[in-house]
Design a protein that fits this description.
single chain; about 280 residues; mainly alpha; two-stranded antiparallel ribbon; two-stranded antiparallel sheet; 10 helices; 4 strands
Length: about 280
């Protein structure tokens, strides 16, 4: 009987997404930017959904997406709960990213947050050796737990912020959004990156609290063994970097490439090293 191999499906989708992104220069002549970007996000959403279904479970990945999407939308729509307005760090979205929630924030923005954050969440758990081979957790909420989770939350936020070092210059150049005031990072306000650390940190903390309450772990794909397919999240993370590098060169914003490569590259390498180090234990 034929068995559904979700791992191979994820690899196949990753290859297709890479090809899709690589030939995007030609596809933009056939489709609108909105349709092209939506298709690209859809590929990554399906991959993350399958991966999360296997490592978190159906109920947990659903809750993950609800929390991540809601928190990201809240921050985006309220400009960081009003803080963005105070520090002159307010984005204005064009129609490039499609329909908007209440005419302000494109629905796709929190979805991109959720997809990329799942990668950061899983990579952080790998680095701190929190992925397990069994779903049942023995973690309890304590002072030590709070300190550890807060530290991990910040790490996941830094992973996200490093990606935006290239994402923001490219998307501004495309015309997806603009900033109310010019900033010191190639026209982008530095407070934007505070948000890129804060939002993932909040999501990480809330979801970790939820997992602790229900006594569940995020597990390796395979459950009873540390399957290398778990590392597909690292490939997604690097795939985003490579594709954005291509567009940064094409759009003549290559000055952002070294900053992203010098942060995302070591993070990905550290994740892989920590993963294989855990295999030897």
């Amino acid at each position: 009987m034929w068995k559904f191999d979700s791992n191979l499906i994820m690899i196949f989708l990753l290859i297709i997404a890479g090809i899709y992104g690589g030939i995007g220069f030609f596809l933009l002549n056939l489709f609108t930017e909105t349709i092209f970007i939506t298709g690209f996000v859809l590929f990554f959403f399906i991959m993350v959904l399958i991966h999360g279904y296997k490592t978190l479970g159906p109920r947990e990945i659903l809750f993950f997406f609800l929390i991540a999407y809601s928190v990201a939308m809240l921050y985006e729509y309220t400009d960081g709960l009003g803080f963005g307005e105070l520090v002159h760090c307010k984005p204005y979205y064009s129609n490039v990213l499609g329909p908007k929630f209440l005419g302000k924030t494109p629905y796709v923005i929190p979805l991109v947050w959720t997809i990329s954050f799942y990668c950061a969440f899983t990579m952080t758990n790998i680095i701190f050796n929190r992925l397990k081979t069994t779903r049942e957790s023995t973690e309890t909420i304590s002072r030590h737990w709070f300190v550890k989770i807060i530290g991990m939350s910040i790490v996941s936020g830094l992973m996200m912020a490093s990606w935006d070092l290239i994402c923001d210059p490219v998307m501004v150049k495309i015309g997806a959004w603009s900033w109310s005031h010019s900033g010191s990072y190639y026209g982008i306000p530095l407070w934007n990156y505070e948000g890129w650390v804060e939002i993932p940190a909040v999501i990480f903390f809330i979801f970790s609290l939820y997992m602790c309450k229900i006594k569940k772990n995020q597990i390796y794909i395979g459950g009873d063994k540390q399957s290398q397919y778990t590392l597909l999240v690292v490939l997604l993370y690097i795939a985003l970097l490579v594709i954005y590098i291509m567009y940064a060169i094409y759009l003549e914003v290559s000055y952002s490439i070294p900053w992203a490569a010098l942060t995302m590259g070591p993070i990905a390498a550290l994740t892989i090293v920590c993963f294989y180090r855990s295999l030897s234990k």
